[in-house]
């Protein structure tokens, strides 16, 4: 007898992966943080997190929304304005540092005049430039809406019992004098890139771990005993500014995020890790959960991930989410707003 | 090809509308003399009837039996050939100031004279002015009048007809009479917006939205001289309004504050004539 003799099939690569149906992996997720239909959930993260929020809502789970669309707009337009994507209108939160920064702003309620970008006479919130695609009338309007946004988030986070966060990237651009991290590189959506001021950064494992700890502390200061479920987005980088090839940059980034999330979850009873990254990138799937651009996740992939999650949580009998339509534009995912994809336009 | 298209006669205009068409029809019925350059026909449809009109093989036809019956009863016909007209004017059909009132009920933006609505119960959502405007624009495009106008534009593509392209216009639904103060409950939203000074801003937003929402359509805003404070019509342009009927003239009740009268309708005919320009 030895430790391997009684292991279940999923513990072995041949039976757990190579010989298993990649669309129905058994035993890949045993929830530590349990949720039910009544659990109040907040979602945030990178583009992939939009799928999670939508699927959870579709399955009848209580996903909070601090800022529902207040006026009648077609769904696609509302989503382009950042409504209904997450539990607040913060747009994609790609890095853990970005999350920490947002939570600190929620606590302070402060909006900063220095983080208003301009483009063609219109003004944008530099910390979430994508949520007002037409821009705003004035810097005052940007600050007015940011303060309202932070106040709405404060109320929502005080209610949330579980915070589901999808880690997306380690690469980011930082405003050197203030240390503020941006959602997108200055100049891509609005603003102007200043090489003397805007500094590239790829967060290390230690930094990412530390940021996760800070984020947890901030969340629990807003809501006692708030629990967390972390996932890592399987969506590769659109582009890297690291100076190297995008493939190793992607692997580096995802490896850091995966290890940080795993270690962080192992260290805290109220933090769980759900393997959406592994489910999509599983070699047995031979890339079938990626669209032809090898970046966007297919509707089948999203459905499989959410089915796995909901079944493990005992929510399998809840209404299953509708499949997401296949993308109709190369590189674009139906119904997903992804500022990072704008970088693709600069590819030569 | 119409006579006007050949430059030999008045322009043939098909005026389509819901109950608000009655003001224009009544004005024209009283005397067509002020508009010698227009040969006007009317196509009235009650409530949602005109939303059921669509263009098929160069003809404007009802897509439902109910709409067909309503059109037949009111106009003694239910189909119109696009090639027979030089212009189509959609009157009313919910392209009106109420479309700005819809988001105003729930949201405020920075720059409204009344402020941002903070501390109000029930809470009003802060939105950007750009999104507020976009919402009104969507309302215009999806209204009965907007839908019909856009269908006409699509059906009048150059290959569909010979000669100059026919014009498509939308004449704004008249704003409620300022006498609606006598029914403060029914018109509370508009009256409140007026009272706090937001009327002119909402009016600007609505008109801007109507211009942008309907590409290929000429928007005819409510004649300036008939307005009161951005949200309303001067009562003299409302008193004596009549119903949309097949023939006989039936007055609206005294407490109807949403329809305009023949004096107003005459101004709309002036707008149409001016938009089409003089006959060569």
Can you walk me through this structure?
Chain A is α/β, with parallel strands linked by helices. Chain A has one domain (40-346). Chain A is built from nine helices and nine strands. Chain A has a four-stranded parallel beta sheet, with helices on both faces. A three-stranded antiparallel beta sheet of chain A has the order 6-5-7. In chain A, strand 8, helix 7 (246-267) and strand 9 form a beta-alpha-beta unit. In chain A, 47% of the residues are buried. Chain B has 280 residues and is an alpha/beta fold. Chain B is 33% helix and 16% strand. Chain B has helices spanning 21-30, 65-75, 98-104, 129-142, 144-155, 188-195, 199-213, 262-276; strands at residues 11-17, 38-44, 53-56, 59-62, 80-81, 87-91, 107-108, 125-126, 167-171, 218-220, 227-228, 232-233. In chain B, strand 3 (53-56) and strand 4 form a beta hairpin.
What overall form of chain A do the CA principal axes indicate? globular
The major beta sheet of chain B can be summarized as:
5 strands, parallel
**How many individual helices of chain A?**
9
Largest sheet of chain A: 4 strands, parallel
| Amount of beta strand of chain B | 15-25%
Strand content of chain A: 5-15%
User: Widest sheet of chain A: strand order?
Assistant: 1-4-8-9
**Which structural class do the helices and strands of chain B define?**
alpha/beta
Please, what is the average pLDDT of chain A? Answer: 91
Order of helices and strands of chain B: EHEEEHEEHEEHHEHHEEEH
**Would you report the number of β strands of chain A?**
9
Beginning-to-end CA distance, first to last residue of chain B: 16 Å
Percent helix range of chain B: 25-40%
Number of helices of chain B: 8
Blueprint (SSEs and pairs):
The complex is a heterodimer of chains A (348) and B (280).
Chain A: H1 13-18, E1 41-45, H2 47-58, H3 75-80, H4 96-108, E2 116-119, E3 122-125, H5 139-159, E4 162-167, E5 171-175, E6 180-181, E7 198-202, H6 205-222, E8 227-232, H7 246-267, E9 271-273, H8 276-281, H9 299-312
Parallel strand pairs in A: 1-4, 4-8, 8-9
Antiparallel strand pairs in A: 2-3, 5-6, 5-7
Chain B: E1 11-17, H1 21-30, E2 38-44, E3 53-56, E4 59-62, H2 65-75, E5 80-81, E6 87-91, H3 98-104, E7 107-108, E8 125-126, H4 129-142, H5 144-155, E9 167-171, H6 188-195, H7 199-213, E10 218-220, E11 227-228, E12 232-233, H8 262-276
Helix pairs in contact in B: 1-8, 3-4, 3-7, 4-7
